[in-house]
Each structure stands twice: as structure tokens, then as C-alpha cells.
Structure to design on (644 residues):
């Protein structure tokens, strides 16, 4: 149930659009890879290439070293959870889950046992006889999942698996999906535009843009050390602050002679009323321009006094700042050197969208 | 959807204001105007008189007896049935397969779609003449097959349109899902596409049946003299006699069509209830 899947130098043109441009991706056995990116970045096309729905113009797809580029979808033995679940409306829950077994001509008795087992795995064994039309969104999601794993496929593909669920259900399903994938030890590839989802579920995150993979790595690694300003701003929120020859705008020397963009995550800057309590870390005087209360966190925009072009977004746990912040307040911002990551200008140029001396736009995708 | 309907209705009512009542009245009048021919035929078919007269003297079933006992009429009825059933079968088969085939087509879909619908705007007289000519060449003028082929050709677009709309309404991911779960194309068709289209296919078959039962131009041109379908016999008989059997025959045609209409409504209601 765990295949090593590889895409090697795959390019796909859909109509006049270059959907994939020389994508190479290796999915190690038993790992969970999340393809993350804005719409139109090629993540769904990558999934379709793995599934066999889209045939690459150039490049090779292989499972465990075996070339499957020209193999039809129904022979690939992949369990796919579709965005809208794609449950067969004319079949009961049990018939939906039993469908892949029926297609494999598994004997009826054996089929029943396996269907029961798969439904038990997602906690729906009591709903076997129900019509799929009577199920809630979360239940449909589970049926789709049971149907995708019941035949012990070589790999699990998930296309925006949780996009249709409301936020609370989505949060719990993320963990549940992850647990299930680890329990089965199955190789999985998920497509998502939701960065939290990707960071929560995956062993490996591949950030895609314009038909290419911009960066691939462990979630914590990609979050802490984004290779480009695009990755920095797409994965979480980031303040990009100009660095010139080791000089961080507003904060002073950071050592070295790097020139580029420093990534300062909003949660990595602490706010102090007066001087910073100890000399450690980089500090800069700033004035608060905007404050919003978000429950557990306080979110503020601060302009550096010595570099007035630089506007930082900062979030603080509520209560961390002794007095509540007001627009116009003078404060000291403190950043730990270890939290600082500089993207050299060469890399920023690849990203093409670097905007020096300006806070990166908030790229979090709106809730649907 | 019901809520949307209610909101639309409220907004329309408000927008129309006092014009609402005259509009409703006009709609009722138009409806009545369309119904009047049927309302007139019905009592005439139950007349005791020997002629088509108005007002009729009620009540007698003798013209219905006449309809089911005179060989000319019973022949026409049986011929109508023998033509309508194969027409419905052929049109349903071709229309359904072409609709599904076109849904999968990558090139020329638009052009082919237009071609499949084209028979609807064909000048039927010209087409009938053409078939007549062809059937003469094959020496088939005495057979029912030219009528069947001609009517099937004209009924196919109806099936095509109904099934295509059924296809457009389904979840586009279902065939992909079936393929990913191990179904090769023929089994996708058999286990997923066709079962989902059951209602559309059944509905279009019934409409094709009703169409053939009612069709006259093709039937008139291509039927051998003296042995037409029911509509042809009705037309011939109104020319020869003023015999009220015609009214009874008309009621039969209306009855068949109405029954099919009722079946369609029933099927829709049942389906809607099941999927709700």
C-alpha cells in the first residue's frame, strides 16, 4: 500500500496555458505530500498527471520505478478523494464503498467484510445502508475516504479533500486524515490552497507557482526558511524587511554581508512599552498605526521610526503587552536573531514579485 | 430552491403592482383559448347524433364502439402502435448514445451538437418527399419502415436534447471517480452514466412515443393509400364523412398523449422524492 511515486520533468500544456513546466517530484513511500499554491499554480494538474487523467506532453511518471506514463487511470490502482467527493448518488453508502471491489471482481462475501472494515475505519459502519443523499458533508467525506482506501490502493490522492467542510469539521478532519494515513502507512498526495491544512497534515510541503515547484521540504523547514519571497508570503504571514550588506532596515546590523529580504513572522516580533528589558536581540523604535483584537491574539501594524517606509504586521498573545496598545503609541520592537531568515536578492528575483521596503500583502486565502 | 422561488415571487408581485390582475386574467384567457378545441371535441365524441353537430345531444358511447369495431379505425390504431414503439426505441437508442458520445468528445462537439438538433428545423415536407423517393427506389412503399425511419429521425433530437441536459446536470467528476476506482470505459458507462440517466432516458422515450403517435406529415406521405396511422385516418375521415367517430379517435390520441404526460409528471415526482 505504499508506493514510491515519481514525476520526472513533466510539462503539460492545457489549451494555451502551460499548466506544468518541468515539474520533478518524488514522493517517498508512506509519506504525505501536500501540494500547496494559489489557484492556477498547477497543483491540481500535478494530481491529475499522477492519477492518469492528464497525460504529460513531456516527462515520465513512475510508481516504484515502473513507468506508468501511458497507463489508463483504471489500471493505476490509486485511491482518489475528489473535491466534491464524487459519490455515486444512485448507490447506497455500502455500494459506493464496494464499487472498487466490484470492479476488481472481488467475491460478494469478501466484499461485504471489506466494506464493513473500511466503514468502521471512518466510523460509519452503521450508515452502510443509507443513501448518500441523506448524509451530511462530513459523512460524505468519510464515505469518499473509505471508498478510496477499501481496495488497498498503491497511493492516496486527495484533491482539496476538506474544502467543502466548515472550519471546525475541517480542523478535526485534518488530524483524522493524518492519523488514518499513518495507520495505513499509505503514500498520499494532497492538493490544497489552505496553508494551515498543508502544514498540519503533510510530511512534505511542495509550494507551487506558475506550473513549477518553488520550494519543497518539511513544513517547519519551509516555514522557517522560505527560499523565495513568494513562499515566505504564501506560507503564513511574513514581513519582508530590506537588508543591505548585513544592515537590517530600522534594526541595525545583523552580521554578515547579506543583501536581500529578511523574513520576520508577525509572531516573532515582541512589543515593549519602553526599552527592551535585556539587550539581546535586535530592536527598533516604532509607532503603532492600527490595532485589532482577535481574541487570543492582538494584531497590530507598526511603522519603524528610523525606516518610515517599513510597516510591520505583528501579532502578540493577548496580555503580553501590559497595557493595551493604541494607534499612535511609541513602542520598541524586538526580534530574536535566531528567528531571522534572509532571502538573498538573487532568490527574490526568481520570485519576481519582491517588493523591497514594504510589508508583504496578506496572502491568506479567504474562507470559502 | 424553494426559498429562492418564494423570494422571486414576492419580488415579481411587488414589481408588477396593480398590473398583476389583468396579466393573470390574460394568462387564464389564453389558456382557455388553447384548451377550447379539446373541450369541444370531448362532448362531440359522446354525441347521440350521426353528424358532427354543435351542441351535441348527449350521451352515447356508440362512436367509441364504432372506433374500436370498424376495421379501418382498428387498423389505424394498431398501425400507430406498431410504428410508435419502434420509433421510440430507435430514437432513444441513437439519441442517448449520441448525447453521451458528444459529452466525451474533444473536437467538433459544437458542430455535431448542431447537426444532431438540426432535424428539428428541417422542412419536414421536403424531408418526407425525400424519404418517399428513397423508399420507392427500394420498393418499400407498402412497408411501415419508411415511416418508422422518418419519424425516428425527427424524434432523435428530442431524446438528444433531454439526455444532454440530464448529462449536463450530473456531477462531472463521477466518471473520473469511477475510472480511478478501477472501472474501464464500458463499465463506467454501464454502472455510472446510464443508471444516472435513467430518468432522462425514460422521459425522452415517452416523449418520442407521444411524438410518433401524433405525427402526421411523415405518416401521411409515406403510408400506403388506405392504411395510415391514426392521425392520417382522422384526416382522411374528416374529408370523407362528418362521422363523429373522428371525434372519438381524436379523444383517443389526446388520451394517449395525456397519459404519457401524466406518466412523465409521476416519474419526476417519484424521482424527486427519492433523491430528496
Amino acid at each position: 500500500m505504499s508506493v514510491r511515486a515519481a514525476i520526472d520533468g513533466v510539462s503539460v500544456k492545457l489549451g494555451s496555458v502551460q499548466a506544468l513546466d518541468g515539474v520533478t517530484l518524488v514522493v517517498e513511500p508512506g509519506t504525505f505530500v501536500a501540494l500547496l499554491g494559489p489557484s492556477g499554480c498547477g497543483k491540481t494538474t500535478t494530481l491529475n498527471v499522477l492519477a492518469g487523467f492528464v497525460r504529460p506532453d513531456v516527462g515520465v511518471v513512475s510508481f516504484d520505478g515502473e513507468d506508468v506514463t501511458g497507463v489508463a487511470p483504471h489500471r493505476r490502482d490509486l485511491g482518489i478523494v475528489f473535491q466534491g467527493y464524487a459519490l455515486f448518488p444512485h448507490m447506497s453508502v455500502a455500494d459506493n464503498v464496494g464499487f472498487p471491489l466490484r470492479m476488481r471482481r472481488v467475491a460478494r462475501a469478501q466484499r461485504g467484510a471489506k466494506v464493513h472494515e473500511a466503514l468502521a475505519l471512518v466510523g460509519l459502519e452503521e450508515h452502510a445502508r443509507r443513501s448518500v443523499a441523506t448524509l451530511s458533508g462530513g459523512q460524505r467525506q468519510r464515505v469518499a475516504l473509505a471508498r478510496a482506501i477499501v481496495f488497498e490502493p498503491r497511493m492516496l490522492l486527495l484533491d482539496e479533500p476538506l474544502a467543502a467542510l466548515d472550519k471546525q469539521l475541517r480542523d478535526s478532519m485534518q488530524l483524522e486524515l493524518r492519523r488514518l494515513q499513518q495507520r495505513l502507512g499509505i503514500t498520499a498526495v494532497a492538493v490544497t490552497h489552505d496553508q494551515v491544512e498543508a502544514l498540519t497534515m503533510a510530511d512534505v510541503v511542495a509550494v507551487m507557482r506558475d506550473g513549477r515547484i518553488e520550494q519543497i521540504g518539511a513544513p517547519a523547514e519551509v516555514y522557517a526558511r522560505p527560499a523565495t519571497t513568494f513562499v515566505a508570503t504564501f506560507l503564513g504571514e511574513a514581513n519582508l524587511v530590506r537588508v543591505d550588506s548585513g544592515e537590517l532596515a530600522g534594526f541595525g546590523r545583523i552580521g554578515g554581508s547579506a543583501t536581500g529580504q529578511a523574513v520576520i513572522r508577525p509572531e516573532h516580533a515582541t512589543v515593549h512599552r519602553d526599552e527592551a528589558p535585556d539587550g539581546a536581540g535586535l530592536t527598533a523604535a516604532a509607532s503603532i498605526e492600527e490595532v485589532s483584537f482577535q481574541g487570543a491574539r492582538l494584531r497590530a501594524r507598526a511603522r519603524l521610526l528610523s525606516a518610515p517606509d517599513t510597516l510591520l504586521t505583528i501579532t502578540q498573545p493577548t496580555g503580553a503587552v501590559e497595557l493595551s496598545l493604541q494607534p499612535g503609541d511609541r513602542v520598541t520592537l524586538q526580534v530574536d536573531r535566531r528567528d531571522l531568515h534572509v532571502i538573498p536578492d538573487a532568490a527574490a528575483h526568481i520570485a519576481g514579485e519582491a517588493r523591497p521596503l514594504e510589508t508583504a500583502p496578506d496572502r491568506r486565502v479567504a474562507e470559502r | 430552491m424553494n426559498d429562492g422561488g418564494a423570494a422571486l415571487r414576492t419580488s415579481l408581485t411587488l414589481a408588477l403592482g396593480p398590473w398583476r390582475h389583468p396579466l393573470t386574467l390574460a394568462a387564464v384567457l389564453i389558456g382557455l383559448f388553447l384548451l377550447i378545441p379539446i373541450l369541444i371535441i370531448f362532448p362531440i365524441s359522446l354525441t347521440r347524433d350521426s353528424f358532427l353537430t354543435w351542441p351535441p345531444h348527449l350521451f352515447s358511447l356508440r362512436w367509441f364502439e364504432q372506433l374500436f369495431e370498424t376495421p379501418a379505425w382498428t387498423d389505424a390504431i394498431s398501425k400507430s402502435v406498431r410504428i410508435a414503439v419502434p420509433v421510440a426505441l430507435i430514437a432513444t437508442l441513437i439519441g442517448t448514445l449520441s448525447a453521451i458520445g458528444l459529452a466525451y468528445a474533444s473536437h467538433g462537439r459544437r458542430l455535431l451538437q448542431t447537426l444532431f438538433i438540426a432535424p428539428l428545423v428541417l422542412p419536414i415536407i421536403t424531408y418526407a418527399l425525400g424519404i418517399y423517393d428513397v423508399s420507392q427506389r427500394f420498393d418499400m412503399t407498402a412497408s411501415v419502415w419508411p415511416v418508422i425511419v422518418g419519424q425516428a429521425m425527427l424524434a432523435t433530437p428530442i431524446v438528444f436534447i433531454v439526455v444532454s441536459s440530464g448529462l449536463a446536470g450530473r456531477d462531472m467528476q463521477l466518471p473520473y471517480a469511477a475510472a480511478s476506482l478501477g472501472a474501464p470505459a464500458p463499465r463506467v458507462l454501464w454502472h455510472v452514466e446510464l443508471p444516472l440517466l435513467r430518468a432522462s432516458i425514460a422521459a425522452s422515450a415517452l416523449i418520442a412515443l407521444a411524438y410518433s403517435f401524433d405525427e402526421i406529415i411523415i405518416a401521411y406521405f409515406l403510408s400506403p393509400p388506405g392504411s395510415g396511422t391514426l392521425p392520417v385516418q382522422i384526416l382522411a375521415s374528416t374529408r370523407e364523412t362528418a362521422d363523429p367517430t373522428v371525434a372519438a379517435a381524436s379523444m383517443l390520441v389526446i388520451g394517449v398523449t395525456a397519459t404519457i404526460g401524466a406518466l412523465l409528471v409521476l416519474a419526476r415526482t417519484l424521482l424527486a422524492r427519492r433523491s430528496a
